[in-house]
Write a structure and sequence with these properties.
The chain is an alpha/beta fold. Helices cover 45% and strands 14% of the residues.
């Protein structure tokens, strides 16, 4: 259990204190902050267990054969993560476990591989679920699309999507037990945020690495620009993890949860939220409700939204409802006019003519914007978009559109909604230049 000679007291502080303050409600989670806690340093949370908060977190386990990393971080932070690990231990990287294939979790192995080649170490092995290679293949196929949607989601116009990936050496289907240097490590598959997700349990250290099945935010089970998510299976996995008796939960994003009672509560609350959204949606589907009715009816239990670790600051429950519909109901939303619709621009032009011109639609959008409440802002968004589609070169119309979606972005709590609305506002500002 070598920690490289570092005094454990020097490795405890910032992240643990922040985690405790969040849990007790002393500190507040700002939008996105719990997901991008990249300034924190490595901290030792238990004997032979370290945690690095980053854009995607990294967990490090010491063994007699070398270290095991659960997730390896994103490319921009790879060198920093390697440096922090080396300040803690000189042991070689024996095994890297990918919790899932999102690019913020899987781009840190290369630095350790280069080190192994330079120093003559045996190269590290990468272990992941068997669905991960297909994910990487899909990322290559849809490279341009992924660049666009992530530029929009994170407001990073220059973002490039990678084409080269470190594929796993070892894959498994439902469960796999590793023994690395005498340390037993259990890997379990669960479809949740992704179809290739792995949660990792280290029984001897009572440590659970959840990946993105727990992120100190409402579960990312609805992301409007990404592929299918699986709320019911996610809830089941949370209940399975809650039954383990873990005393330390190391998440894919956010801060650790310390203490068996807190770990169990966090996981069961997450499961309850997902199950509630799933069951409410399915019940209405079974009654023949349209998607529109379901979206405006289903709500997450308020007592769960009040939990500091389930605030909708990244994804949000309304989007989860859409994903449940998509999983079971396909893409038809129950409105016959949308089955084989007219072009958006043609419909907008027709409505603008009926209203007396695109300017009339924009004027009404501006009036609704002034009202400021959520219902008015939703209507303002529709009218501003119709006006811009009917008059795509009208600077005055785009000025209103920019104002409407700028305000919508400011009013939202989730990264998902903020990103889409801010991007729309930026598009219209470009027209006015």
């Amino acid at each position: 259990m070598d920690a490289g000679g570092a005094d454990p007291e020097d490795l405890v502080g910032k992240t643990q204190d922040y985690a405790d303050q969040l849990w007790r409600g002393i500190a507040e989670i700002g939008s996105g902050h719990q997901l991008i806690f990249a300034d924190g340093g490595l901290e030792q949370f238990a004997d032979g267990v370290a945690f690095i908060p980053s854009f995607a977190n990294v967990s490090v386990l010491t063994t007699h054969a070398g270290i095991v990393m659960v997730d390896t971080g994103s490319a921009p932070f790879a060198a920093k993560i390697h440096e922090q690990v080396r300040e803690w231990t000189p042991a070689r990287l024996h095994t890297a476990i990918y919790s899932h294939g999102h690019i913020d979790h899987v781009f840190g192995v290369g630095v350790f591989e280069a080190e192994a080649q330079e120093k003559g170490y045996q190269p590290p092995q990468v272990v992941a679920h068997e669905a991960m290679p297909a994910r990487f293949d899909r990322y290559k196929l849809t490279n341009g699309y992924n660049a666009i949607i992530n530029q929009r989601q994170f407001q990073t116009p220059g973002l490039k999507w990678p084409m080269n990936y470190r594929y796993p050496d070892v894959t498994y289907r439902s469960a796999l037990t590793l023994n690395v240097g005498g340390l037993e490590i259990e890997l379990h598959h669960a479809r949740g945020e992704t179809d290739d997700h792995t949660w990792t349990w280290i029984p001897s250290r009572k440590t659970l690495c959840t990946g993105d099945l727990f992120i100190w935010a409402a579960p990312n089970a609805g992301n409007p620009q990404k592929v299918q998510r699986y709320p019911a299976e996610w809830a089941r996995a949370c209940r399975e993890m809650a039954a383990l008796g873990a005393e330390l939960l190391l998440p894919g994003h956010g801060v650790p949860v310390v203490g068996a009672d807190r770990v169990r509560t966090a996981l069961l609350d997450t499961a309850e939220m997902l199950q509630s959204l799933h069951d409410q949606t399915v019940a209405m589907m079974n009654e023949g409700a349209r998607l529109d009715d379901i979206i405006h009816t289903v709500r997450a239990p308020q007592h769960l939204l009040d939990r500091p670790y389930l605030r909708p600051v990244y994804d949000e429950p309304e989007f989860v409802v859409r994903n449940v519909w998509r999983l079971y109901g396909g893409w038809y939303d129950g409105n016959p006019s949308t089955l084989k619709p007219a072009r958006d621009a043609e419909l907008a032009t027709e409505l603008a003519q009926l209203a007396g011109g695109a300017g009339k639609l924009a004027d009404r959008a501006a009036a609704l914007l002034a009202a400021g409440d959520d219902a008015a802002l939703r209507l303002a968004g529709h009218l501003a978009e119709l006006a811009a589609l009917a008059a795509p070169d009208d600077a005055a119309v785009h000025q209103v559109r920019a104002a409407v979606f700028g305000k919508r972005s400011e009013a939202e709590a989730s990264t998902m909604a903020k990103g889409v609305f801010a991007w729309a506002a930026s598009e219209s500002r470009q027209v006015n230049r």
